[in-house]
Design brief:
153 residues, two-stranded antiparallel ribbon, 55% helix, mainly alpha
Length: 153
Amino acid sequence: MFKINRQTEYAIRMLLSLSKREVGSRAPTSEIQEEMSIPRAFAQHIIADLARGSFVKTFPGRDGGVMLARPAKEINLFQLLEYFENKTYMQGCKNENAECPFQGNCPICIQLGHLQEVISDELRKVSLDDLQKVTAHPYLSSLSNYQQSFTSI
C-alpha cells in the first residue's frame, strides 16, 4: 500500500547512524556509508540531499565530515518522507495538477484523506531519537553484530 523509495530508506539509515554519535561530533561519510551498508554512489548524493533539506551540516576537508543539523528528537519521519518522497497524499486527486470531477464530494477522497491525516500524525510522532531507541533493542543489536561479522568474512 505505502512504500518508501530506497533513497529515503538510506537517508533515514544515515541519520540514524549520526544520531548514535555524541552531539556535535562529525563523522566521515565513508564511515556512515560502510556502517549502514549503503552503496558509495548513493551516500554522497544522499548526504548532499540531507544538507539541502537542513537535516545535516557538512564540513569539507581532511577534518570535515557530517553531523546532524538539529537534535535527533526534532527530526521526524513525516519531515523525511515529505522531503524525499515529494508526495504527501495517498490519493492522486489531491496531488498538484490533478483534477477531480467530484470537487471534494467524493467518498473515496474523504475517507482516504482522513486515513492520510491519521498516518501523517503518527509519522510526526516518530523522531530519529525514537527510532534510535528501537535499534538499541538487544535483539536488533545482536542481529547487527551478526551482519557485521558476516560481511567481514
